[in-house]
Design a protein that fits this description.
The chain is α+β, with helices and mostly antiparallel strands. It has helices at 57-73, 78-90, 94-107, 112-124, 128-140, 146-160; strands at 166-179, 190-193, 196-199, 209-223, 230-242, 250-260, 270-283, 286-303, 306-319, 333-345, 350-363, 370-382, 395-407, 421-434, 439-452, 459-472.
Length: 473
């Protein structure tokens, strides 16, 4: 068997890269929004939990919470109101964006561009009468910019056709990553085989390496029925090419789609999304794992400064043997998992987060059957204008996490008398620096340490990452 442990690592990706994320939670426990559990050296190649600072909905919601507090302090600051409306739209809170734009019209009724934005948002909410009213007001104004006028006329035609509500957004991140232990090699001088400790072979030692990566995330929403229901689909992609260790080339794709709805009319800030899941991954340019299943998202915001997000999923994950990944099919498992996250805005600039995760993998053999528990804490704050590059403030995040992984039975090839127990610490420092509405810089420093009762699985890894993110539309 290969040495490093399988670990549940998220994207999107997730924001970060997938999924994820403006205020990264990289060192929080791995989320269940991943595509693959990566045993052996693949562990170090899975994407960090938050490598997409702009494309993660949870990150937009954190940013929205901070802007809301700033808006309460400075209710007539047009720049803050505009930024709140923009971020609310990206977070999927169209009602919040509408509230901000209409507040601007109270301050200054002669803003045809804002009227166009309101027409677009009301159209997405299937409120055609209000959408048409704002579109006609915008088109009637001689101050409407020419580029906006070119978009407003087709929008009015679409409103008249009574088209359904739909929207989409996403991000792409291109970057480089350095790791001191890219193959997650054992940190000590020995490994265990058949119950006996032996000297570590040269091919088993940890190796440093660089990679170039591309990560992306996308979210599409299509309104159905009333304004409270929509089909919400998300997808995340991560691909990394190593400089020296070609067998660690890694790629993964994950997708979810389901109906988001409000289950109770009396709780407007509570929504649920039952969804279907599909994913696949490749290691060393060979098919590595595929998965499918079902899940349920529950999102609740009881107050503007407090949010709860919970995801429960059940996946069937299958691993595929190949010439470079032999014997991995025994790890195939049915995997129930749950992740709960709470976010609280301490001030207009600072928020904290708590993550709890649990996963059970019922593999074909006992030594790959496991229970995994995780807890993580993070704190994010916006930088002062003097330390920011563009018009929008940057965000710095400090995060830490701890996980406990217990396996069911000993691996007879390693030690027939010892059942594996892993304990992992992880910490990270992340900086997301917007350059414009669409572009941002992203950098991350991360430290991981896994302590195991079997020397084969104890290792350390330090990594540094830098990337540039483009968010759209």
């Amino acid at each position: 068997m290969g040495w490093p442990c399988p670990r549940f690592v998220s994207f999107l990706l997730t924001g970060g890269l997938i999924a994820g994320t403006a205020a990264a939670t990289l060192a929080a426990p791995p989320t269940i929004a991943d595509t693959t559990v990566a045993p052996g050296p693949a562990l170090a190649q899975t994407p960090p939990a938050s490598t997409s600072p702009i494309g993660d909905v949870a990150a937009y919601r954190r940013q929205q919470d901070l802007l809301f507090q700033r808006m309460l302090r400075r209710p007539t600051d047009l720049d803050i109101i505009l930024e709140f409306a923009r971020v609310s739209t990206l977070a999927g809170d169209l009602e919040g964006a509408i509230m901000a734009y209409e507040r601007l019209l109270v301050i200054d009724p002669n803003l045809p561009r804002i009227q166009f934005e309101l027409a677009y948002l009301y159209h997405r909410l299937n409120s055609h009468d209000l959408a048409r009213s704002y579109a006609e007001q915008a088109l009637a104004s001689p101050d409407l910019p020419a580029d906006v006028r070119e978009r407003a006329q087709p929008l009015l035609s679409e409103i008249d056709r009574g088209s359904g509500r739909r929207s989409w957004n996403g991000s792409l991140t291109l970057g480089a990553r350095y790791q001191t232990n890219a193959n997650a090699g054992p940190g000590g001088g020995t490994v265990r085989s058949l119950g006996q400790d032996t000297s570590l072979g040269s091919g088993q030692a940890g190796r440093h390496d660089w990679n170039a990566f591309l990560a992306g995330s996308a979210r599409h929403v299509y309104g159905v029925g009333d304004a409270d229901s929509s089909i919400e689909s998300t997808a995340s992609l991560y691909a990394a090419r190593q400089v020296s260790i070609a067998r660690l080339h890694f790629a993964s794709l994950d997708a979810r789609s389901g109906l988001r709805m409000r289950p109770f009319d009396s709780i407007e800030t509570l929504s649920v999304r039952p969804h279907a899941i599909a994913g696949m991954s490749f290691l060393g340019d060979r098919r590595y794992a595929s998965s499918g299943g079902v899940g349920l998202d529950v999102n609740w915001r009881p107050r503007p400064d407090l949010a709860f997000d919970t995801t429960a999923e059940l996946r069937q994950r299958s691993y595929h043997d190949s010439s470079t990944n032999t014997g991995v099919s025994v790890m195939s498992a049915l995997e129930p998992a749950i992740q709960a996250q709470a976010r609280y805005s301490l001030t207009a600039e600072t928020s904290v987060g708590l993550d709890l995760t649990y996963r059970f993998a019922n593999a074909r053999v006992g030594w790959w059957t496991l229970h995994d528990f995780g807890v993580g804490l993070s704190i994010s704050t916006t930088l002062p204008a003097s330390l920011s590059i563009g018009d929008r403030p940057g965000t710095v995040t400090l995060a830490g996490g701890r996980s406990w992984t217990n396996y069911r039975a000993p691996d007879p090839d390693i030690d027939p008398d010892a059942t594996r127990r892993d304990r992992q610490w992880q910490g990270s420092l992340t900086l997301a620096m917007p350059l414009s509405t669409s572009w941002s810089l992203y950098s991350l420093l991360q430290s991981s340490y896994v302590a195991s009762n079997l020397p084969n699985y104890t290792y350390r890894n330090l990594s540094a990452m830098v990337g540039v993110t483009y968010s759209f539309p």
